[in-house]
Amino acid sequence: MLSHTAITIDSIDCVLAYDIHEQKYLFIGQGIDTILGITARELHQDNDLWDKLIDKESFACIRSLINNLAENSSIELNYHITTPQQITKNITDKKSIVIDEATGHKILLSNIRETPVKSSCITAPPTDAGLSHQFLNSLIDSQTSFLIRIDISGNYTFINRQYLKTFGYKARDLLGKHFSISTIPQEAYLCENAFIECLNNPGKVVSLLHKKPDVHGTLHDIEWELISIVNLSGEVCEIQGIGHDVTEKIKIEAEIKDTAQKLDTFIESITDSFFIIDNEWKFVRVNAAFEKIWGKPRAELLGNVIWDVFPQLIGSPFETAYHDARDKQESVKFMVFLASLNKWFRTAVYPSAEGITVFAKNVTYEMRAQEEALWTKNNLEALINNTNDKIWSVDRDSRYVYMNNAYIAQIKAMTGIAPEKGEFSYAKMGYTQEIIDEWASYYERALKGENYTIVVESVDEKAKNPAFYEVNFNPIYASNGEIKGVGCFAHNITARLKTEQELLSQNKRMRNIASLSSHELRRPVASMLGLINIMDRENPNNPENKQIIDYLQIVSTEIDDVIRLIVDHTFTGK
Length: 574
What we know:
By secondary structure, the protein is α+β, with helices and mostly antiparallel strands.
């Protein structure tokens, strides 16, 4: 159904509706044969039949005016036709552009009627002055277009108000002067070429895009449609141009192009695989990263169905996600391992009316790093929990961050309560405030950057006997160098202290032995040596020898007593 347009139809009027998009007549009213001398059937069969009735000079002007007719505006034209019956008529033609509400097509409505003329004008074609008058009247409804006319010498013969207003000229500045006066030297050849083409091709619409300066030197991008006008002899007498200022349009197009180029550069530079698939599952766009990861050039991808190119994706999480995104019109994000490539991908799928856009990031390295980190963590914990040494750490608030099994067992054996991560150390263990403050001071020293060791007395968790521990306090640093906690390592040194004590005791006994040897034993030995030296070895029967032997007996007894004393000191410590 056509949009409603108020049109008054007299008994001699005929209304025609022409679908510009479909290039066909939708409606031809009664009276067509009376006014134009042709039937509706003939016009349906030949859309150009009406145009052939109009003389060439008038038709060129009419066509140009229709092409620049705005939507929901109208123009009234007066021209002569010659019917197939060779009757010349004066026609008043009111044309309007409306939009078909059902199809959105532009519809050209023509309300034509025959108007009486004086007998002297029936066979006479319209004069140039009459045509110029028609131009000026028609432009009242089209104030955004530029309309100019140039004679065959290239001089301006007509300029409309919109042209003068936009470029700041007065009519007297241009009329009668060559068109080159309003062009820039760099593009003068473009205007000259278009001018010559119009002269050599009467009736042909010649397009021209060039920069035209206003009186202030500001350049405007102007798009022209130029057509030559011929006289009754078929000779070109003038060139008519209808133009539009497309400066903003070109600027916007340039910005769009620039944005598109930046987007293309971004898409090609990112390391994520990027591709677009239409609703028929065909590749529309891929980037270099996608080509590299999948090992296929885009020439093998674009225009082809993804399931044909990559059959290994059928039945995979990729296929499910792509269908969900398209069918539900919701974005989908997921992580998946693709066995055929031995790679992990973090994928995001974004739907649109035209298809889906996919970003797939290769996170194989990250996933393997996480697996290695988890393996290292598990092995480190196994190693830490496979020792009897007590290992734990606290944060800046003295709350437990980590504890190995040995530490938990030790605290539970001492207090009956197993400590838990996040709890304030010693708070619920029944310790006195003095002990809590003491350990808080230890942590504080480490939090200030001190690395040190202390020895504390505790209880052996198995034998329940007193035990001694050597505790190392180490500051824990964050990546920015800030101390974020304290790491503690406690090693049971009870056996070592016992050994050290025994060594000290042994050393003491050895010193006593040395003292006895140097004092108690040396004296009788010296006496023995003296007596031996005074014995008469030449006369063993010398009576004095008997006395010396008696003294030797006494000295031997003293030496034996000293040896017993040394033995007692060595093995009993007395």
